[in-house]
Amino acid sequence: MWPCVGGCVAPSCSFSRLARECGYDFIVGVHDETHKAALKFADPSLKVVVMDWC
């Protein structure tokens, strides 16, 4: 389905943590609801938005 989900969540978490520590918010943009659901399943703490206009 989304082969990068397992490989992308860990780096996203480190970027997310770094962003929060620096006072920024970290949001992951994806193209569809399926990808959003897969990322949220892998890491429920991620903020994920669908950017269907891209």
Considering the chains and any ligands shown, give keywords for the structure.
single chain; 54 residues; alpha+beta; two-stranded parallel sheet
Compact summary:
With 54 residues, this protein is an alpha+beta fold. It is built from two helices and two strands.
- What structural class should be given to the helix and strand makeup? alpha+beta
Instruction: Give the % helix.
Output: 40-55%
Give the averaged pLDDT, no decimals: 78
Q: Which consecutive residue ranges, at least 5 long each, have pLDDT under 50?
A: none
**How many strand elements?**
2
What is the chain-wise order of helices and strands?
Answer: HEHE
C-alpha geometry: globular
- What is the radius of gyration computed over CA atoms, rounded to a whole number of angstroms? 11 Å
Which percent band covers the strand fraction? Answer: 5-15%
Largest sheet: 2 strands, parallel
Distance between the termini: 20 Å
Strand order within the widest beta sheet: 1-2
The helix count comes to: 2
If you had to describe this structure to a student in words, what would you say it looks like?
Strands 1-2 form a two-stranded parallel ribbon. It is built from 2 helices and 2 strands, in the order H-E-H-E. Strand 1, helix 2 (33-42) and strand 2 form a beta-alpha-beta unit. The protein is of the alpha+beta class and 54 residues long. It is globular. Helix content is 52%, strand content 15%. The mean pLDDT is 78.
